[in-house]
Fold this sequence. Notes:
single chain; alpha/beta; 2 domains; 13 helices; Nucleotidyltransferase, domain 5; seven-stranded mixed sheet; kinase; five-stranded mixed sheet; ATP binding; 12 strands; EC 2.7.1.170
Amino acid sequence: MSEYYLGLISGTSADGIDAILVELAEHSVVTLAAETFAYPDDVRQEILSISQPAADHGEQRIDRLGHLDHQVGSLFADAAKTLCAKANVDISKVSAIGSHGQTVRHRPQGSHHFTLQIGDANVIAFETGVTTVSDFRRMDIAAGGQGAPLVPLFHQWLLGESDKNRAILNLGGIANLSWLPKHKGQVIGFDTGPANALCDYWIQQQLAKNYDKQGEWAKSGTVSEELLKHMMADPYFLMSAPKSTGREYFDAKWLEQKLKGADPIAAEDTQATLVELTARTVTDHIQRLPAQCDELLVCGGGYHNDFLMARIAQHLPNQTKIQPLNALGVDSDFIEAATFAWLAKQRCERQPQNYTSITGASRPVIMGALYQA
């Protein structure tokens, strides 16, 4: 028997809400509708501001966070209702909404590690009339895990068993890898480092553009080997899995510190070097996987950056086949939103949703809080 589920997420780039309506059965998923709903400019700027770990962001920061939590929840609810209307599906027929929310802080290290997502699920459930599952990451953190990544489980369920060693690369604000070895080997997953986040920040600062379309600006520059070496010396890149990170680590301050440690270069050369950083750190991590990667399936906004994809291909062995994840019938731009639709179903069925080999948690746990409509 199939059921309707709706997945909602806004990634580290905070450019909008990815929403997907799917029909889930035991071993299949059918996409009924998918759309990205851009944040209003003032909301996006407030998210980016409050996400920065710098000491001073003005007075009444807790008040600002509370207002934003409610506002983002309402925007998520609007996205859910609009998507169902466009798909001609009565929202009351949706079994549950899985809402990841908007991450504003992810601190998986230390004695009291934590993660924080906003987008009040009470608001989503009330405004849509649909039971909502949210707060997926913190039970894993309570069990000693990283709280991330969560998508490898969905990747495994979606793609099933294979006679190939496959990796799935998600190029969002942060890059993450899922390793799906052949013949039901142990699945692992982790964040490799920055992907779009730093490139988007730099072009916004220098050219007042939201992103570098197809990597054309980066392609016009020259990689600074000095700056690249300085960046790649960061301890995060040498850490073993399980590990996860976010924009609170790889942020503007991180980039400015690296720039100060190298000779001055042209702005486009910095962009080229940031692309090369992503390509090198991604492929370095792929080459450290337990076995040769036969097939690399790519999803996320970074897949549309032709220059980045060319640099990744340059650093991988010729025998590794690279293709978009949607070559297997999945829209690569909405794979994370689909993940949280599926995770909502798992939560409603009380199924554990974490792999200790991925997050480092002490045991499998049921993740996500239920908010009844």
